[in-house]
Description:
The structure holds two protein chains of two kinds.
Chain A: H1 22-27, H2 32-38, H3 42-52, H4 64-69, E1 82-87, H5 96-103, H6 105-119, E2 123-128, H7 133-148, E3 164-169, H8 179-186, E4 210-214, H9 215-227, H10 229-233, E5 236-237, E6 240-241, E7 243-250, E8 256-261, H11 266-273, E9 283-287, E10 296-297, H12 307-312, E11 321-326, H13 331-345, H14 351-368, H15 376-387, H16 395-409, H17 411-419
Parallel strand pairs in A: 1-2, 1-4, 2-3, 7-11
Antiparallel strand pairs in A: 5-6, 7-8, 9-10, 9-11
Helix pairs in contact in A: 2-6, 2-9, 3-6, 5-6, 6-9, 13-14, 13-16, 14-15, 14-16, 15-16, 16-17
Chain B: E1 8-13, E2 16-21, H1 26-32, E3 57-60, E4 67-68, E5 79-81, H2 87-102, H3 118-126, E6 144-147, E7 150-152, H4 162-169, E8 176-179, E9 186-189, H5 202-206, E10 212-214, E11 227-232, E12 241-247, E13 250-256, H6 269-273, E14 288-290, E15 296-298, H7 301-313, E16 319-322, H8 329-342, E17 347-349, E18 373-377, H9 382-385, H10 387-398, E19 402-407, E20 412-413, H11 419-428, H12 433-444, E21 448-452, H13 459-469, E22 477-480, H14 487-496, E23 511-517, H15 519-523, H16 525-532, E24 534-541, H17 547-550, E25 553-556, E26 565-568, E27 574-577, H18 588-599, E28 643-648, E29 671-675, H19 676-681, E30 689-694, E31 697-706, E32 713-717, E33 727-732
Parallel strand pairs in B: 1-5, 16-17, 16-23, 18-19, 18-21, 19-20, 21-22, 23-24, 24-25, 28-32, 29-31
Antiparallel strand pairs in B: 1-2, 3-4, 3-5, 6-7, 7-10, 8-9, 11-12, 12-13, 14-15, 14-25, 26-27, 28-33, 29-32, 30-31, 30-33
Helix pairs in contact in B: 7-18, 8-14, 8-18, 11-12, 11-13
Amino acid sequence: MTPSGLHEVLLRHADERDLTKRAEYEAVGGYRALTTALRTDPGELVESLLASGLRGRGGAGFPMGRKASFIPKPDQTPNPIYLTVNADESEPGTFKDRELMLRIPHAVIEGIVITCHAIGAETAFVYLRGEYATEFDVMAAALDEAHEAGYVGPGIAGTDTNVTIVIHRGAGAYICGEETALLESLEGKRGQPRSKPPFPAISGVYASPTLINNVETIATVPTIVGMGGEEYAKLGVENSAGTRLFSLSGNVVKGGNYELELGTPLRELIYDLGGGIPDGRALKAVIPGGSSVPVLTADEVDTALDFDAMAQAGTMLGSGAVIVIDERACMVQLGLRVAQFYMHESCGKCTPCREGTRWMVQILRKLEAGEAEQGELDLLLNVCDRILGNCLCPLGDAAAMPIASYVAKFREEYQRHIDEGGCPFGGESSLEGVVAPVDQHHAHLRGQIEVPIHA
Amino acid sequence: MSAPAVELVTVNVDGREVQVPKGTGMIETALAAGVEIPVFCYEPRLGPPVGACRMCLCEVEGMPKLQAACTLTAQDGMELRSAQTSAKAAEGQNAVLEFILLNHPLDCPDCDKGGECPLQDLTFRWGPSNTRMHFPKRTFEKPIPISPTISLDRERCILCYRCTRFSEGVSEDLQLVAAHRGAQSIITTFEEEPYRAHFSGNVTELCPVGALLPSTYRFRARPWEIDNTPTVCGLCPVGCNTWATTREGKVQRILSRNHPEVDDGWLCDKGRFTFDHLRAEDRLREPLVRVRRRGFEAVGYDDAVREVARGLREAGGSVAIAFSGGETVEQASALARLVRQGLGGDAAILPDDLDPAVDAFRAPLSAIRDAEICLVLGDEPVMERAPIVDLWLRAARRAGAEVVTVGPAGSVSTPPGSAAATSAELAGGGGSDELRDAGRRLREASRVAIVWSGDDHDSGRRAATLAASLGLGDGSGLYVLPRSPNGRGVAQAWYEAGEGRGFDPSGEEELGALIVSGDEAAYDPRVAQLAERARFVFATSMFTGDHTLWAHVVAPGTSYLERDGTVVNLEGRAQRQRRVVDPPHLDELELLARVGTELGVPIAPWAAEATVDDHAELAPRAQLEAPPEFAPAASTNGAGPGLELVVYRPLFSGPGVERVESLAFQRPAPEIELAHADAQARGIATGDTVTVGLNGSGRALRAAVRRKLRPGVARIAAEHADGLGSHVEVTKA
């Protein structure tokens, strides 16, 4: 284990210099990995990615090297090969990709070019979340600079590698962060997931082989090339190599992005780096990987931030968004807010998600209002269960899993809403800074719930 | 040539082993094993499966999660367990059905789909008997008329996306779309414009619930009080197979009846909605005999038959007949024998006169889909003449075929009326570079489809010449689109009743008698001219029209829904048309039998027992008797001032359609299509009002600018071309 505290690999030098400028980036060794990589055999690069143990940073944690190895070689396919960077960061609580794009855009671009070379792609798309306007400007400016310097375009760095990068802005749909919905949207269609197989590696954008990776994953590639896959694998813990940016938010003193080695205990992030809970309040729960993952209780705060430890605790590292919840929070209200988000973002393509998320919201609203009957808690759990695993894409699961975990871990609190005919917190609960839209907060009064449901 | 060996794989479904070709869809594989997996969104005719409704969730050995069976294909050794043997799959399926029913209104007793509704059926078989949903269901304004023919009930919609997939991936009209998101998703038309497309009605059949219904069928009948009669559409030369639904002796709707080689289960809106013409107000119900110069009297059939026999007898052999091309073979044969054998006449106006040489390249329409390259020749838009052919061409393109269209709006642009000349160039390997290249690709391909859509002189023989010169073999097909629904059958009946072709009466000075068979013929201005020179005119027609001014005897005619008989479609496929409802009068064949008796020509008053199945097979190819002569042809277009006018006959036209109010919106708008360059030179944009005519006198029409149209050419629907010459000047009004 490494010593506790920050371990900045991606963000090294980012505090000292303005790395959005190419010259500054170059001054700290930027674009050196690109020059090396373009003179390396693509197969070797993929081997190095495999050896690094780098797992996807978007949420699912699939090993990047393996994903890249699924892409057919250019001579095995009549179609062009594409790289698509998923920059549609929209999981509640997650704000790491925007920091990377704002502070080290050249690392993202360098990662793209290296990855393109590794898989034989000549075109890369960056699918950027529509609301990320500044990020777009910064990325576009960096791309211009990279063009001027010959790091992007035809005949990069004196080799015969050509890479074109297109930044495509989304239109504000969470679902377009799902890789196949992203591809549909990129093609100009309604953003709805595709049925898999065929997987994007075989038939992705424009029915061509497509590698899709998260911004952070791609931004890590130059580092891996620079230090060597095996060296990178020494960072972190078994099955969870490297560092990650954790987006710390919620009821914590110093929220923000923290780059940590994987395997760092959650407690260290929240208390040592994040300064703990404000005003001496008690910790109630932690959402460790974005709003779609099962919750951890205060007792589980010593869980390590790595894939296996989280899995053992029955949850997931997800997008690395750690949301801290203090004692003021009503878990029913939290459930309602989270469910409302997923209902709102369900694309409507498959039945269980479209209908189930709405039903969940209806039941939760009734619970919160203190109007639920005995048995409706079990109904809620059953609805979650009936969504889970039955949907076309992970969005349905993303709605069902957290809600089911809130009920499982805070069942007594849910039950009291029924037994007492209202919220036991009265008007005193607060989800401020957690996931709640502020305009819904004041209505959390007994019998006065006015949570809009788009009926 | 042997077909490539099909690799068989063994799949286990619910403990039953079955062998199917590798890659067979799992729904079909399960059926082969005798297991029905319920589906809503799955419909292979709509393209790749989407796995949206999740009704078909099954357990697959080796996969942790339930899988949508519709998205899987058969692989060797696969083990699938459906809801019938897997508790997990059953739970998944129950979950999905509960979710589907969650917001679906419980209005089955009130819903026109009730009784023939897949959702209702599957709910009865697998669904819960009560609901756990105690919240208000989602409501929408309803019904929404998305067009004058289709009503949308969004509350009933289960969002299977069949309709939008049809619009996007089959008819490619791109008008039906999904809007909004999640539980608020709705089906709507693009920009909320009416769904105006030739194939729009198919979505009412694809819909697995009562969300999309034909407005004409709302509250008209219940499934247990209707009869469905298998028949064949008689409105265009495709001959789509249909079911005609009747209740209490009245046709209430037309449904498609999938013939995979002919229509693939699609039906155009003309075929689907024109049945209402049966109830047109101006239908003739009794024979009419002219009594004074301008007057008619309704008479009994005895009088009418006597009058007809007299008029024909007195013609002294100078008898001509004008066919509509919609008659059954039996009707046409009776008429032909009456004229050629009974009266000694030999003159006929045939709407179609296709050279039998085309039968040497006969192939089912479905072969178009499998072609590597398709060639479309001629000025008439395929969609307007034989709409299903257009769907097959689209399917071919989606499957990767190259579709070369040659004509004034084609991918290879040629002047109007030059199909014959172009075909000669293609056959001879000459012409422009573009054409020569296309010819080379056509020769190299082993599966070719040639579609000829025009009224060019002698198109059948020319098309056959082209096909022969390109070496069309098995797997390729030639499709010459006739003008009329049964033009091929009618012509054949005419030939068989006498010696050869006979002659065209147009050149005759005077005629003893003229027989006008059907409304289409009665509408033909050429026939009207002929009638002026005839001493006696006997017409049969469904409706009144101009001909009632010049005919001497008019007998009421029947619709294709009111008679039994054989029709021959553009492929040369003989199909069975059935009497769906009784006509309100004697049908033509019975009348002709009685006239025949008077004139000594034995005619059976009914069509003989059917010799063809309700799913008719295509006869084998004919031998090409002699290599057709290579006949050079000149383009028929002539020079003139202004723009050359191409007049086409729109699909939504003709005596039947014109009497159906709900189809009025489908008829072509009063507009003229202009080439982009011509429009620009005149400062005209789409939507502008333009004056069309010559020498200052003109009419106002709306302009539609088409990028594909050849400069110097303007195109217009026949019904708006009245009085316009072959060339027009177009100016911005």
